[in-house]
Each structure stands twice: as C-alpha cells, then as structure tokens.
Design brief:
Layout lengths: L1 E5 L5 H10 L3 E7 L3 H14 L4 E5 L5 H14 L5 E4 L14 H29 L2 E5 L12 H21 L4 E7 L14 H6 L9 H13 L8 E4 L8
Helix pairs in contact: 1-7, 3-4, 4-5
Keywords: Oxidoreductase
Pfam families: adh_short_C2 (PF13561)
EC number: 1.5.1.33
Length: 241
C-alpha cells in the first residue's frame, strides 16, 4: 500500500487530507505542537485499519530537522510515495512592525521546510514514482493586505512547485493546491473580514476542508499527466480579489 507524509496533519486542512488519503494510503502524521491531536488522529485511523497510521514530531526549522523527519517517515512503512507539504504559519506582518523572527518563521514554514523535505525525500519518491503536493494560497498571486511576508513565502512556494516539477520529472510529479476561503483564521485581521470576503466569492459561500482534501487526492492519484500546476480551490474568489 502507498504511504504518505503530511506535514501539519493534526488539525484543520491537514487532518482532512490525512483522513481522505487514509482510504488507500498508510499515513504519517507530522505535528509540531499538537501532539495530543496527532496521536488521537493516528489512533482513530488505526482503529479503522490496523497499523495504517503513525504520528511523528518535528520543528522543521532546519535542513537537519527535515532530513530527520524524511528518514523517519520513510522507515515507518518501508518507503514513501507521496509528500504533502501542508504545515504553515499565518499571521499579519504590517510593514514597519515586522521583525526578523516573523520573517524566519513565515519563510521557514511556508518555503524552507517544503524545499528541504522535498529534497530529502526525492530519492524515495523517485524510487516509488511518486509525487509532491504543496499547499499554496491564492494570495501567492494577489497579495493580502498586511501579509507581505506570508504572501511572498507562498509565491516562492508556487515557483518552487514549478521548478521541482521540471527538475524531478519524469519520475516525480509536483503540483500545488491554492485554497481560498475554507477555514477562517482564529483572529480576524486586516484584509480578512469574513463578511466582505464572502460577498466577493462568486460561489457565495466558503468551501469545506473536504474540497481541498479531494483535490489533493486527485493530484496524487488521478492525474498522471499533470505536473507543475497549482489548482485554485476557492469558489472563484481569485477572480474577484
């Protein structure tokens, strides 16, 4: 059975992706702080199918962190055929108050870690004829007010997706999913007013985590001739930003 590593998989979109892919994958659930939620999810999935899920911790701050997680994830089920780079920090950084720690965290989680994880897992994915799916953002192309660093990091992730698709072809496909209004941030910030956003979405509603999870599944399992692409799953919001 194919195996997948999903970063930031203990909650929110990562959890939905883990539950969807668990239908026909062995799942490695990465977490940073959410140990209890990650292990509970693994227990839930293992109750459905024994020895099909496990949880691994990593900060993913350094190249060494990424390499250690890649090695551990590969050992869990004797190989790996899919990497989903989902873990992401997200918060505003208004120009004039942003600091270097915020730069390092936002660039680290959204760009640095996906690159070094992809690099570390490239041999295993090549051997498996596997693929990488990166969770980007529609704001990689249309910046969100007061989120300059986050938007820039996601723009970098989009270019990384395209670059890796060229470099790792033909053995490994690399694609991305750009969510729109799916899950709302815990704290409302400038540029993220829920009512204003919903009013500008052509579909006139927010999406569901399952919309993202099913798109990840499509790119992983049902799109053998698609690589280097980023699919916006946003109800048309990127048409009207």
């Amino acid at each position: 059975m194919a195996s997948v590593l999903i970063t930031g998989a203990a909650a929110r979109l990562g959890r939905a992706i883990a539950e969807e892919l668990h239908r026909d994958h062995q799942v490695v659930i990465h977490y940073r702080h959410s140990a209890e939620a990650a292990h509970q999810l693994a227990d839930t999935l293992n109750a459905l199918r024994p020895n099909s899920a496990t949880a691994l911790h990593s900060d993913l701050r350094t190249k060494a962190d990424c390499e250690q997680l890649a090695a551990a994830a590969t050992e869990c089920f004797g190989g790996l055929s899919l990497l989903v780079n989902n873990a992401s920090a997200f918060y505003p950084t208004p120009v004039g108050s942003a600091d270097e720690q915020q730069w390092d965290e936002l660039m680290g989680s959204n760009l640095k870690a996906p690159f070094f994880l992809s690099q570390a897992l490239a041999p295993a994915l090549t051997k498996a004829g596997g693929c990488i799916v990166n969770l980007a953002d529609i704001h990689a192309e249309k910046p969100m007010p007061e989120h300059t660093i986050y938007s820039a990091a996601k723009a970098g992730l989009v270019m990384m997706t395209k670059s890796l698709a060229r470099e790792l072809a033909p053995a490994v496909r690399v694609n991305g999913v750009a969510p729109g209004a799916i899950l709302w941030p815990e704290h409302e910030s400038e540029g993220y007013n829920k009512e204003q956003i919903l009013a500008r979405i052509p579909m006139q509603r927010s999406g569901d985590p399952s919309d993202i999870a099913r798109t990840v599944r499509f790119l992983a399992a049902d799109a053998p001739y698609i690589t280097g692409q980023v699919i916006a799953v946003d109800g048309g919001r990127s048409l009207n930003i």
